[in-house]
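Office hours follow-up: a student asked to see two folded examples consecutively, so here they are.
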Amino acid sequence: MPDKIDERRCSGPAAIVLIVACLGLTAVGAAWGCSAPPVADAQTLLSTRCSACHSPQRGQTTKKTRAEWEQTVTRMIGKGAKINTAERAVLVDHLAKITAS
């Protein structure tokens, strides 16, 4: 005789937790800008993402180390900058090269 599936295992608090977790991960992905296509060109990132709040010259004239740029870009993402992980790496690399202190 084949085993019966216990329908109780797929309902109740465990199912609700699973659904909420999936919805939460989807929301986090959207909040981090995962839906935006990555931009490989650092100049495009500066002119489209950073210049939304800053002058185009600001990132090019501010002298910072790579670690300082990592902190700055992370802080800007926390303030709402639409930069995904790949774009963050491109941007930090570029800013660190052109503004090495």
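And the second, which I mentioned at the end of office hours:
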Amino acid sequence: MKRSKLYQIVKSTGYSVATVSRALNEETAGVVREATRKKRYTAAEKIDYIPNRMAKSLRRQRTDTFGFLINFETDTISGYVHEILNGVIDGLKGSSLDLKIVSSARHHTLQGIIKIHGLDGLILPYGYGHEFPDLAREREQYKNKAWPVVMINDYHRKFYMSQLYSDNYSASRHLAEYLIDKGYRRFFFIGCGSDSPDSSARKKGFLDAMKERKLRFDVENDIANGYFTEQGGYEAANRFLSRKSLKHSVIFCLNDSMALGAIRAIGQAGFKCPDEIAVTGFDGIAAGEFSNPPLTTVKLDLHEMGRSAVIMLKDILAGRQKRFVKKKFPFKLIERQSA
């Protein structure tokens, strides 16, 4: 039926099949004269013609669809993931590419996800080490190829795949040293039980700053797991707030979501932030600017990482990028009123 309609357009316009096909194709329409395009659109509208994208994909061995992998149980409420996703969407604007949100559940390999969901490329907002235990083998398999997968953060030098990342160790250490220079000497730490490269690097940067500045820090009692969520940060802060020695201290949180939960707990307990207890976050999500008080944090350019991931996938698919590439993005200390 579609082919029959195509030939109807050919017959009514007097142009060749090749010319009409180019005019119908968003990617090649620009090479066809404007008068020809207008004539094609008029003829197509009269017979309600819509190009068959599936047939086109089969011919080109491309689907023009990128995947964005998320954990439906945790990532849908993650400000970190949303910042990256917004950047991905910006990167797709003005193109004919589609985006498919894919669940990380029920899959064992990334290559399997690409095949099952008919994707040209895949973007990971972090490493998904627990969800994909076979990831190390996959990375090794594609280390000499331009695998159409881009991972954001969770940097590791032995990850044989394209990565866009920030130096989480240096960023965390810089924030800790900034707080020490402001006169803070008592610290509490809300992290996550995850052994992801980012989480481990942020924790190490903080602990190294404590050690180098010769500050006492009790790793047994002054660390709590906030599970990278606002609720987790709220509950962890409440455990700290039961102590008598908490005033004039800092609750150092490994992401902004936990910091927002900690600020809420401080207010509900009758303390003032930052006059009595300061709070800092990490990542620089938009919500931190509008918390009460606004959150002091380290901002990673997550939006630009998401946008750049789209550009990188385009380069891989076009053959402009032959092997994996690792690109580091700067971080920035955002000084606000929470510390």
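Two things to take away from it. The radius of gyration is 25 Å. Residues 168-300 form a domain with the Rossmann fold fold (CATH 3.40.50.2300).
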